[in-house]
Amino acid sequence: MEAKFERLEALIERRPFLLSNIVLRQNPNNVYEWLNRIKLCEHDTYLVIKTFTEAIKTIDPLIAFGKCSKVWIKFAKFYESHKEISNANLIFHKASTLRFKTLEELSTVYCSWAELHIRNNNIESAIQILKHACNKPAKKSAESGSLMYNINSWSLYIDLLESQGEFEKTKTAYERVMTLKIATPGTVLNFADFLQRNRFYEESFRVYERAVLLFDWPRVYEIWIIYISKMVEKYAGTKLERIRHLFE
């Protein structure tokens, strides 16, 4: 009788894994179930690594059910939590070479990779990672493109450059975003504010001028309002004709 109870307890303990096996046999590309399975293993470091490794070998990013990038990022963070930064870097590097279903997933991988370096006080490496991302050529995939056209990667890259006091490089990055026509109204306002804080007022006004041609109503409204208010603040009483022209 005692042996039967022991077998029953063992079966009960294994039940979540047995159910997971069934789900993964039905769809080995089920990201959600792989993440669930990894969580089931969290008490055993060796088993976690084994399961992560099996997951990234099994899941096809192009037909994954869910975002395959989540598995790669969690794997890297697992190594980071164990102070194994070199292994975390290796995981991110491998992930960066994959073809994902969407450009957003690849961008998330690069941004998460850069954030790993930021958390570990290696800002220069984070900048280099994002610089590479923002100049990354397109993958040959129906739904993917080039990170060069992803504003999220550019935004983090610009923030890091500005935080390091890299005026010319920050300005060049902002200009590139404007040229690629991927700037959001927020990007434009940040660029203009950046120039004004560095006393390049006329250049900031030229940014507004370019921006009002990029956006339609209602997004252009906020840009016009701020443009006019900044012009009045700077030149009130001295360049009335120019200000009147803006109002018109």
Describe the overall structure:
The chain has helices spanning 2-26, 31-40, 45-58, 68-81, 85-96, 103-119, 123-134, 151-163, 167-180, 185-197, 201-214, 219-235, 240-247. The chain is mainly α and 248 residues long. Among the domains are: 83-181, Serine Threonine Protein Phosphatase 5, Tetratricopeptide repeat (Alpha Horseshoe), CATH 1.25.40; 183-248. The longest helix is centred in the N-terminal third of the chain and has 25 residues, at 2-26. It is elongated and about 80 Å long. 28% of the residues are buried. Mean pLDDT is 85; it is low at 140-144.
The name of the CATH architecture of the domain at 83-181 is Alpha Horseshoe
Proportion of beta-strand residues: under 5%
Report the top-level CATH class of the domain at 83-181: Mainly Alpha
What value does the Rg take, in angstroms? 25 Å
> What fold name goes in the CATH topology slot of the domain at 83-181?
Serine Threonine Protein Phosphatase 5, Tetratricopeptide repeat
The CATH superfamily of the domain at 83-181 appears as Tetratricopeptide repeat domain
Biggest sheet descriptor: none
Query: pLDDT average, as an integer?
Result: 85
Helix content: over 70%
- Give the N-terminus to C-terminus distance in angstroms: 92 Å
| Low-confidence residue ranges | 140-144
Structural class: mainly alpha
State the shape: elongated
How large is the count of helical segments? 13
SSE run: HHHHHHHHHHHHH
How many distinct beta strands? 0
